[in-house]
């Protein structure tokens, strides 16, 4: 049976808590092949706290609504992500001026669904749980305690599209997922973008469903 090879704490790929000025995860997880395939003077690297001032949020606005996020709120969320150094891998592509022009993330799910901060499931008369459920990034015993990479938030600045930056981001995230031990990498996309992801090596395997809590109000 397949089993992911756990990273040893002394491995150069083993995530550690990010420093206030350092990268969100080890730079050894950035694919050399992807780096060399970027346009001249472009670079790809882990997210840094300083990317608030490098245009990260402007790039994300190409993808979705971001809101008015101040630097204090940004720093608090960055620190939260950094403390979970083996779950969130957010990378950025920068141009020659060191401005962020593309971004993407892979979030690692640990199979077992041990809920962290949610109430325990109801029990029957014998004191045994009669139901269970899970939120993303919980832990789950199926697939032999395997890891699954979820690709999220792929965005490229409008004036940078057409340079294959989206392709490079997808390739770089797949490299990270493989290096940290994920047995598969999955993503959700619109039918409009399906062709792009097929070219990246992905295939349709199901139907996305969503429940937005805001719709209940």
Radius of gyration: 19 Å
Helix/strand-derived class? Answer: alpha+beta
Count of distinct strands: 5
Query: What's the SSE pattern?
Result: HEHHEEHEHEH
Main pleated-sheet profile? 5 strands, mixed
Please tell me the overall pLDDT: 80
Identify the strand order in the major beta sheet.
1-2-3-4-5
What is the number of helical segments per DSSP (H or I, 4+ residues)? 6
User: Beta-sheet strand percentage?
Assistant: 15-25%
Gross morphology: globular
- Uncertain residue segments: 1-18, 114-120, 132-140
N-to-C terminal Cα separation, in Å? 46 Å
Helicity level: 10-25%
Quaternary organisation of the protein chains: single chain
What does this structure look like?
- The chain is an alpha+beta fold and about 220 residues long.
- The protein is built from six helices and five strands, in the order αβααββαβαβα.
- The protein has helices at about 30-35, 55-60, 70-85, 140-145, 165-180, 195-200, and strands at about 45, 90-95, 100-110, 145-155, 180-185.
- It has a five-stranded mixed β-sheet with strand order 1-2-3-4-5.
- A hairpin with a 5-residue loop joins strand 2 (about 90-95) and strand 3 (about 100-110).
- The longest helix has 15 residues, at about 165-180.
- It is globular.
């Amino acid at each position: 049976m397949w089993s992911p090879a756990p990273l040893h704490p002394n491995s150069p790929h083993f995530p550690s808590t990010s420093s206030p000025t350092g990268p969100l995860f080890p730079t050894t997880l950035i694919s050399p092949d992807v780096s060399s395939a970027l346009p001249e003077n472009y670079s790809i690297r882990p997210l840094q706290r300083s990317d608030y001032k490098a245009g990260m949020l402007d790039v994300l606005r190409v993808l979705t609504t971001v809101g008015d996020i101040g630097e204090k709120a940004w720093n608090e969320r960055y620190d939260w992500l950094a403390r979970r150094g083996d779950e969130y891998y957010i990378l950025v592509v920068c141009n020659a001026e060191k401005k962020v022009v593309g971004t993407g993330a892979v979030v690692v799910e640990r199979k077992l669904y041990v809920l962290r901060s949610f109430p325990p499931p109801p029990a029957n008369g014998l004191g045994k749980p009669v139901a269970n459920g899970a939120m993303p990034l919980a832990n789950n015993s199926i697939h032999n305690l395997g890891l699954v990479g979820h690709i999220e938030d792929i965005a490229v600045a409008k004036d940078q599209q057409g340079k294959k930056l989206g392709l490079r981001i997808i390739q770089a995230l797949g490299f990270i997922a493989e290096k940290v031990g994920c047995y598969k990498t999955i993503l959700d996309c619109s039918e409009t973008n399906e062709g792009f992801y097929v070219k990246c090596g992905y295939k349709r395997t199901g139907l996305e469903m969503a429940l937005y809590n805001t719709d209940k109000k």
